[in-house]
Amino acid sequence: MTALRGHALSSHSYESDSNVVPLDAVPHAYHCPAGHVTTLAFHPEAEEIPETWDCPRCGRHAHLDETAARRLAGSEEGLALVSPRSSAAGKTHRDMLLERRTTDELEELLIERLQLLRTGER
Ligand SMILES: [Zn+2]
């Protein structure tokens, strides 16, 4: 009885070793202060699960602990905390747009577009 069980267990583990399928991987959700959630899968026997992970979307430090992320989000520091190597990643489309054009220019463009739309209707 015991021998049979032992055999079944060892053949099972042999199988999962040979195809390294992330079926039994354990998902861990990292919450960044900006509200992004990154889910990473770790091997169930992984010795070290990092407590923080750089958010791939904005470069801020995402925390395993959602409460920690929320606390950071509540402070200006948390939201300003962006890894230097990915500082561009935290910019919104509008930020990048404003770097290239002033608000006045954008307003002119908007008026132009609106006029084009209006004339197109006629
Ligand atoms: Zn983020």
Count of beta strands: 4
SS-based class: alpha+beta
Low-confidence stretches at least 5 residues in length (pLDDT < 50)? 7-13
What percent strand?
A: 5-15%
Strand order of the largest sheet: 1-2
Tally of helical runs: 5
Tally of discrete structural domains: 2
Distance between the termini: 87 Å
Overall average pLDDT:
75
Bound molecules: zinc ion
Order of helices and strands: HEEEEHHHH
Rg from alpha-carbon coordinates: 25 Å
Quaternary state reads: single chain
Quick one: overall form? elongated
Largest sheet: 2 strands, antiparallel
Helical content class: 40-55%
List keywords for this structure.
single chain; alpha+beta; two-stranded antiparallel ribbon; two-stranded antiparallel sheet; elongated; binds zinc ion
What does this structure look like?
Helix content is 48%, strand content 15%. Residues 7-13 have low confidence and may be disordered. 11% of the residues are buried. It has two domains: 22-90, no CATH class; 91-122. The radius of gyration is 25 Å and the shape is elongated. The chain is an alpha+beta fold and 122 residues long. It has five helices and four strands. The chain starts with a helix and ends with a helix. It has helices at 2-19, 66-73, 76-80, 93-100, 103-121, and strands at 26-31, 37-42, 52-54, 61-63. Strands 1-2 form a two-stranded antiparallel sheet. A two-stranded antiparallel sheet has the order 3-4. It binds zinc ion (ZN). Zinc ion binds next to loops. Zinc ion is lined by residues 32, 34, 36, 55, 57-58, 60.
